[in-house]
Design brief:
The relative contact order is 0.18. The termini are far apart. The protein has one helix at about 1-20, and strands at about 25-35, 40-50, 55-65. The longest helix is centred in the N-terminal third of the chain and has 20 residues, at about 1-20. Strands 1-2-3 form a three-stranded antiparallel sheet, with no helix packed on it. The chain is rod-shaped, with a radius of gyration of 24 Å. It has a domain at about 25-65. It has one helix and three strands. Helices cover about 30% and strands about 45% of the residues. A hairpin with a 5-residue loop joins β1 (about 25-35) and β2 (about 40-50). By secondary structure, it is of the alpha+beta class.
């Protein structure tokens, strides 16, 4: 009986620990798209997220797309 109670307690603690971890939260996101005269599209994206442990992660990506040649 005592073993069963200890096992159930351990399972409960493990289950609650997964609920307490949480997910990252997106703080801000900016996207900037520019089209040049020749049809080239340049886009920049910046994302700031806050992790469950309180650290902040910044991610920047830049993409350039040339127009199709005739």
């Amino acid at each position: 009986m005592k073993r069963k109670i200890v096992s159930m307690g351990a399972v409960t603690i493990l289950g609650l620990s997964f609920l307490m971890v949480g997910c990252e939260r997106q703080v801000s996101k900016t996207e900037d798209v520019k089209v040049k005269d020749d049809g080239t599209v340049k886009s920049k994206e910046k994302t700031v997220t806050e992790n469950p442990d309180g650290t902040v992660t910044k991610k920047e990506s830049e993409k350039t797309t040339a127009p199709p040649k005739p």
